Amino acid sequence: MSRPHPGYYPGFRTLEQRRYWDAHTREVILDRVNNVPPIRFFSEDEARLMEAVCRHILPQDDRDKENWIPILPWIDSRMHENSGDGYRYEEMPPDREAYRLGLQAIEQIAQHLHGRGFLEIGEKAQDELLATLHDGKPPAAHDIWARMPIERFWRLLVQDCVSAYYSHPTAWDEIGFGGPAYPRAYMRLERGDPEPWEVEERRYEWSAPEDSVSDRYTPIGGQSEHHGGPQGGTH
Amino acid sequence: MQTIETPMRRFNPDEEVDYAIVGVGAGGGVLLQRLARAGFHVVGFDAGPFWDTERDWVSDEKGSHQLYWNDERITTGKHPLALGENNSGKGVGGGTVHWASFTPRFHPSDFRVYSQDGVGADWPISYWDLKPYYELIERELPVAGPAYYPWGDPHGYPYGPHPMGGVGDALIRGCTKLGIGVCAGGPVGILSASRADRPHCIYRGFCIQGCKVGAKASTLVTHVPDALAKGAEIRDRSMVSRVNLGNNRRVNGVSYFDRDGREHFQKAKAVVVAGYAIETPRLLLNSGLANSSGTVGRYLMVQAGNVVLGRFDQPVRMYKAPPAHALTEEFYETDPKRGFARGFAIQTVGPLPIAFAKQMMAAKGAWGWGMRRIMMDYNHWAAFGLLGEILPSADNRVEIATDQKDHWGIPVAKVTFNLYDNDQKLIAFGKRKTIDVMWAAGAEEVVQESRYAHLVGAARMGRNPETSVVDSFGRTHDVANLFVCDGSVMPTQGSANPGLTIMAIAARTADYLIEQGDAIFSSDRRDMRPPKFRRDLSPPDTWGHGMPAL
């Protein structure tokens, strides 16, 4: 069952605060919301496949469809512009090639397991297939994974998806993040207190679909310790 | 809001300037300002833009991607480093634009690691050589923090400590419960009260996205305005491709590509490379300079930066307050009982949603519905950062990738990094301790992500020209009028954030260059006497403010 806006902060809408944001921030965020870029990098077939993959990396079935946060267009846009993050692991191909290879591999695994393409195998099987990538135990496409470490590809994919999803004001509403705060500022710094314009948390029994494979936490690649993962600036 | 007037002096490329400085970040920014104030003709080059903070910056994670060095580099080794947003700025202000602005000093022991512990290296200078410059820069930024900071050489800070956010509260609670000393509200280069045209901090939490407020110190707002007022030029969006060797083993200027991709040559009597620990060795290696020792690019260091995340029953809302606002250096020094040399700090960090989601991917393997679930609890999590000293190793290095060039046609950097035995022991212990503090703070779940912070070394200073690149004033051993002035000169790194120390070294180098005067431009003789300490080179109205008594 979906809601217009899932999350524990009922009625909280960061966009309603936009008159308190500085002009450039407002412009950048409204542009993100209102001007979703067209698909330019992925072919039609690739885009359909990627769209389905993104739906599993960040599912939104608990949200009314008209409020869904676009993910694929932002990955496509990054690939189209060929904009990078400032480094490439030596054993990885460039990101554009990585996505093309990754999609081919996903298709090959679907064929290997089910004799059909990824789009034809049903939601649960799709989830399970992607879980094999997460676990680092793909049952097929070994020639591709020999050219591209599966764990690096998985991290690339998940990182790009979360970057798109959690940059959207709808996601901020869902998680109770206050969003831009210049020039108005925050006043209540301690004890997790909300600003007068924020909303107190009201939890409810939120649950993933019963047959979901991804509502659990297991280490990527099935190991317990990792190095060299994504390292967003924090210091 | 502070506005920076950009009309500035323009030198003609044919005009031989006194100094060409490559990179206007922490080191280059401070040096540029002082040399201009002393009357030298000086041009600072930066590969990135001269930011208009109001029009270019946003209160938004994704929208701040342009602040980082996003051009490709190759990363490899057993523990390959993430670069880009993790540790590399691009644009005037450099890394100080996106640093969290923790500004602890190094400890006296940091300068004598080899003598004391038999590992790493000694610096050719001591803490006491840098101390007056620490005090100077702490006033110039200025640094907010406690009146009594107990670790290393105890001292106080000129601006009062910041109020605590939820993460600082957790760190204080956890440390106090375990009997670990902890400091709150600084030291950070963030204004706790307004100064001149810079407003006080508004606690919006977007420090590492560039401080639009102007409260967080960056050389863009602390030193560059004075540099321009005193006649320095900054040529932004100008990528220096080569430092040119002229006659008599002296350099005579730099080649660079302007914003339109046109190549130019700027004549200079002396050149300072201040491109930080990857671009500096890359430029020196691509220029074939200063590497008779073979150490250019070697002894690259990062600090262990494991992020420990704890979930609390009550909301924390860690997006409020600066990410940097409380820390402990109780474990900084070597303790023989631990079985490894050197130590670590524990600091607050405050990841915003995208960074937190990536951490949850790494720490818990979250994706799909699990990612959605954990992110719905974002407001319940707090994050601490381990900051651990990793020792220098010759094999941790920057090289030139021979088969790959950037869009200017300049060969890119290849960065190799491995952890060694002492590093791994230190990280295991420090991680455990940080996790203990998070539990003691009252967390009901604690996870961690392994990562690294900062970048220093790769053109280290030393007395011996056979094992180091520059002398204690940043002058390359090989070329008398070529200098390095950034974090790459550090022989070791302590477990303090490097920014303040980079600036203090730059201020000392400035005193030296100014005192040497024209001798730098004409003579190969090296005067190794320390320069007279000058207080009159600070930007206006930053020296002589009240300091807490110890």
Write the layout of secondary structure elements.
The complex is a heterodimer of chains A (235) and B (550).
Chain A: H1 23-34, H2 44-57, H3 72-81, E1 88-89, H4 95-114, H5 123-134, H6 142-147, H7 150-165, H8 169-175
Chain B: E1 17-22, H1 26-37, E2 42-45, H2 53-56, E3 74-76, H3 113-117, H4 127-140, H5 166-177, E4 183-184, H6 219-222, H7 224-229, E5 233-235, E6 239-245, E7 251-257, E8 263-273, H8 276-287, E9 301-304, E10 307-311, E11 326-328, E12 344-349, H9 353-364, H10 368-376, E13 381-388, E14 397-405, E15 411-416, H11 421-440, E16 445-449, E17 452-456, E18 482-484, H12 499-516, H13 519-522
Parallel strand pairs in B: 1-2, 1-8, 2-5, 3-15, 8-18
Antiparallel strand pairs in B: 4-11, 6-7, 7-8, 9-17, 10-13, 10-16, 11-12, 12-13, 14-15
What does the model show?
- The complex is a heterodimer of chains A (235) and B (550).
- With 235 residues, chain A is mainly α.
- Chain A has one domain.
- Chain A contains eight helices and one strand.
- Chain A starts with 22 loop residues before the first helix and ends in a 60-residue tail after the last helix.
- Chain B contains 13 helices and 18 strands.
- Helix content of chain B is 24%, strand content 18%.
- Chain B is globular.
- Chain B has 550 residues and is of the alpha/beta class.
- Chains A and B meet through α1, β1, α5, α7 and α8 of A and α2, β3, α9, α10 and β13 of B.
- β1 (88-89) of chain A pairs parallel with β3 (74-76) of chain B, so a sheet runs across the interface.
List keywords for this structure.
heterodimer, A: 235 residues, mainly alpha, 41% helix, 1% strand, globular, B: 550 residues, alpha/beta, 7-stranded mixed β-sheet, 24% helix, 18% strand
